[in-house]
Design brief:
Low-confidence stretches: none
CATH class of the largest domain: Alpha Beta
Strand content: 25-35%
Largest sheet: 4 strands, mixed
Number of strands: 10
Mean pLDDT: 87
Radius of gyration: 21 Å
Number of helices: 3
Distance between the termini: 60 Å
Oligomer: single chain
Shape: elongated
Number of domains: 2
């Protein structure tokens, strides 16, 4: 069964694509949650036209996103925090704080887009990944210093 995706679905497809899925997946999951619309032969041409406009829009967005990724890769942000016992911080650096620091640099990201392996609880250099898209994940250096 063909469906037109209204929203991005991880491991299925991007919004604006026409994909083939099983009938049960479409009727029981995608359509009730308003993630997709069933494409029938009568309305297929209309959705094909929408696919073209979505592709054009995605090209513009991807070029802006790639420029933002280059800016993020070039960043080296320094943060001063209170420490105790040498290198340990009193409180871990949260994803929200990192998103705010990026906002001060003119890069608008959500805290859910900030990825780091472990909580940042020590001073020093830490690699932080920003998930802009599923394929585009630039990394920048966050240096934490003692006050």
């Amino acid at each position: 069964m063909k469906v037109f995706l209204l929203k991005d679905i991880e491991k299925v497809g991007m919004a604006g694509e026409i994909i083939r899925v099983t009938e049960g997946h479409a009727r029981n999951f995608l359509v009730p949650r308003k993630l997709a619309v069933i494409v029938i032969p009568e309305n297929e041409k209309q959705y094909l036209n929408r696919v073209k406009t979505v592709e054009h829009r995605q090209e513009v967005i991807s070029s802006k996103t790639s420029l933002m990724a280059e800016r993020i890769k070039a960043l080296n942000i320094t943060l001063k925090r209170k420490t105790h016992d040498g290198e340990k911080l009193y409180a871990a650096v949260s994803a929200g704080e990192i998103a705010d620091l990026l906002g001060l640099q003119g890069i608008s990201v959500n805290k859910s887009q900030i990825l780091h392996d472990k909580a940042i609880k020590t001073q020093g250099k830490h690699e932080v990944t920003v998930k802009l898209t599923s394929k585009l994940q630039p990394v920048f250096t966050l240096t934490v210093l003692s006050e």
